[in-house]
Design goal:
about 20% strand; 4-stranded antiparallel β-sheet; alpha+beta; 2 domains; about 290 residues; N-terminal domain of MutM-like DNA repair proteins
């Protein structure tokens, strides 16, 4: 599933190619693509047509297109395989095209929502005073947001009484971090994924946040992480950060720091990748120090 860097790459593409264009016609080709819009496909299309798209916005993994004159926004759920593509009108129709949005101008391009697995979709929602769609008002700011509060995050970690990777994936604490970038940041910080959050000091939290930001900015610089053709930017191009991964997907390969073979462990229906030497597991409660 796309994480913050991948979603931000898509947002930037939409800002360039879709912002400030007026919607002419909306065609919903598969009902599941608008299942979160409870009023149905016809209502979704009718309420978009004739309105002008504002500057695309993002919080964490969530992306939306505000409508400039309505106080509403189109929220995009990319799911496992959702793609927002900008294509010429005459481009061949994708096999898994679900929604087509045409504009009233003469630029010759349209917005297409393509989704092979149909887990994603588009839906229309009211926005609050801050422009945030009401259904994601509970989502925390992400670490690249200038208003992200490092001290508040540290205090939340201390109160949460959980383990650090669970906390990093908790979108009510910090948004945008998923399995890939959590493993990458924890490797860089030399922190085991099961380290209790209650033991984190302010300097340790600050160090981890710095690594989270560094790895996300590095991924942004090369277009995000693409393991297959399902994640692409609006022009259909893949990202290249998978070539720079230090932890995720490297089971059995030597750690880039100490050459110890990397390990993978099942974790919450996912996998965690780590170095058993650089990222020592926490001692069980009550165990004596080594």
């Amino acid at each position: 599933m796309p994480e913050l860097p991948e979603v931000e790459v898509v947002r930037r593409g939409l800002e360039r190619w879709v912002a400030h264009r007026s919607v002419g016609e909306v065609e919903v080709l598969h009902p599941r693509a608008v299942r979160r819009h409870l009023a149905g496909a016809e209502d979704f299309a009718h309420r978009l047509e004739g309105h002008r798209v504002g500057t695309p916005s993002r919080r964490g993994k969530y992306l939306w297109l505000p409508l400039e004159d309505t106080g509403e926004a189109v929220l995009a759920h990319l799911g496992m395989s959702g793609q927002l593509l900008v294509r010429p009108h005459q481009a061949p129709t994708e096999k898994h095209l679900r929604i087509r949005v045409r504009f009233t101008d003469a630029l010759g391009t349209e917005l297409r929502f393509v989704d092979q697995r149909t887990f994603g979709g588009l839906s229309l929602h009211e926005t609050g005073p801050d422009g945030l769609p009401d259904v994601i008002a509970h989502i925390a700011r992400d670490p690249l947001d200038p208003l992200f509060d490092d001290e508040a995050f540290h205090q939340a970690l201390r109160r949460k009484r959980t383990t650090i990777k669970r906390a990093l994936l908790d979108q009510s604490l910090i948004s945008g971090v998923g399995n890939i970038y959590a493993d990458e940041a924890l490797w860089r910080a030399r922190v085991h994924y099961e380290r209790p959050t209650a033991a984190f000091t302010r300097p340790r939290t600050a160090e981890l946040l710095a690594h989270v930001r560094d790895v996300m900015n590095a991924a942004l610089a090369v277009g995000g992480t693409s393991f297959d053709s399902l994640y692409v930017n609006v022009n259909g191009e893949s990202g290249y950060f998978d070539r720079s991964l230090d932890a995720y997907g490297r089971e059995g390969l030597p750690c880039r720091r100490c050459a110890t073979p990397m390990r993978r462990r099942p974790w919450m229906n996912r996998s965690s990748y780590y170095c058993p030497k650089c990222q020592r597991p926490p001692r069980p409660s009550g165990a004596p120090a080594a």
